[in-house]
Specification:
Length: about 375
């Protein structure tokens, strides 16, 4: 018999806040998640999980189903352990019910609020008298630097075909229904070096080729679903040398696969045309960074999350985002994934904050999802 409450019990309300504050005090910049992983290992064991880590450093866990939930299929819960700069020595403080940093660092609610919510839900659904579906947990590394942990996660270790990721900046109740796929590009232009004062006629400037290509390129907001950027450009040696090499890095994203392909092709064409006109050579590499998300309102995971939210008086709302997350990787691997918003505000800035009430709602929503007898 499962009962759902519309509020966390007092001890759990304290636990989620204490856990969140403890986690943000542990530095865990991307690539340096070891200390926080070690702490999380303890929390997961306390919640009855079997815990292991993979060669990439991701922390994984599983727990059998409990009570009436035992026969349900497993559900994967995921959040990332790493944070962005400036993230050393975070000193959280609570002002008027809102957790903030001291203003010199980020807070790390992205994504330790998600981690704390997951730990609290596991704690609330553990032990005698609980009903809970079988659970798998993936706390990933290096999400912020290109979803690296999730990309290296061996998903054959996990049985779940459904996942909840806690990593959206939307308000409590939001479910990311649409997120873009992304192409990442590296472009190398090779011209011809020559003395700029003595024999400029013999040179082909890779800088001029790059400039002409970019000047004719559609960048920024392409349409409501598509964006593009050239974010890095490097080249040249000295003022008296016609530059022979320029390297650039860029990206395009779209919620629509056809538009993404068209934008990437357009960017390639701009470089190739400019190189051809000016007698240079261009190499253009493109890598699909992650697949898009397109969740139907009727999908099982959206219905499951919405039902759990409704049970505690939270209205579900489907949102669209321009950002990628580990959810894109899981979706691309065939795991139906809902990335939930839980009120983290202004992530990746020193103004990052989250209301204590929202942190508690996040834990309550996850608890309701885990203990939903319909699974
Ligand atoms: Zn995040």
């Amino acid at each position: 018999m499962t009962t759902t409450h519309d509020q966390l019990p007092a001890d759990a309300a304290q636990f989620v806040l204490d856990t969140f504050l403890a986690l943000v005090r542990i530095d865990s910049l991307s690539g340096d998640e070891g200390a926080v992983a070690e702490r999380l290992r303890g929390y997961l064991k306390d919640a009855g999980c079997q815990v292991w880590s993979d060669p990439a450093g991701n922390l994984l866990a599983r727990r059998a189903g409990q009570g009436a939930g035992s026969t349900l299929p497993p559900l994967l819960l995921s959040a990332h352990m790493d944070t962005v700069e400036p993230g050393h020595g975070i000193q959280p403080r609570i002002v008027d019910g809102v957790v903030r940093s001291d203003g010199t660092t980020i807070l790390g609610a992205d994504d330790k609020a998600g981690v704390a919510a997951i730990l609290t839900a596991l704690r609330q659904t553990n032990g005698k008298g609980s009903s809970c579906c079988p659970v798998e947990v993936a706390f990933s590394v290096q999400e912020e630097v290109g979803l690296i942990g999730a990309k290296h996660l061996d998903l054959t270790q996990l049985a779940s075909k459904t996942a909840i990721v806690m990593d959206s900046a939307g308000p409590v109740g939001s479910i990311v229904a649409r997120a873009p796929s992304q192409d990442t590009m590296t472009i190398e232009i090779t011209g011809q070096a020559s003395h700029a004062g003595v024999a400029p006629e013999q040179g082909v400037s890779a800088v001029v080729v790059a400039a002409r290509a970019i000047a004719g390129m559609r960048l920024g907001r392409i349409d409501p679903e598509t964006t593009a950027n050239i974010g890095v450009i490097r080249g040249g040696m000295a003022t008296n040398i016609i530059p022979a090499h320029v390297t650039m890095r860029g990206e395009a994203r779209s919620l629509d696969e056809g538009r993404l392909k068209a934008q990437t092709a357009h960017m390639r064409e701009c470089f190739e045309t400019a190189a051809h006109e000016l007698g240079a050579k261009v190499d253009f590499w493109v890598e699909r960074s992650y697949a898009s998300i397109n969740l139907s309102p009727d999908s099982a995971v959206v219905r499951r999350v919405s039902r759990a939210m409704a049970a505690i008086g939270v209205e579900a709302s489907l949102i669209s985002t321009g950002g990628g997350s580990d959810a894109n990787i899981f979706m691309g691997a065939g795991i139906e994934t809902a990335n939930l918003g839980f009120g983290m505000m202004r992530p990746h800035s020193v103004d990052e904050h989250i209301a204590v009430a929202d942190l508690r709602q996040a834990a309550l929503i996850l608890t309701a999802i885990l203990s939903d007898p319909q699974g």
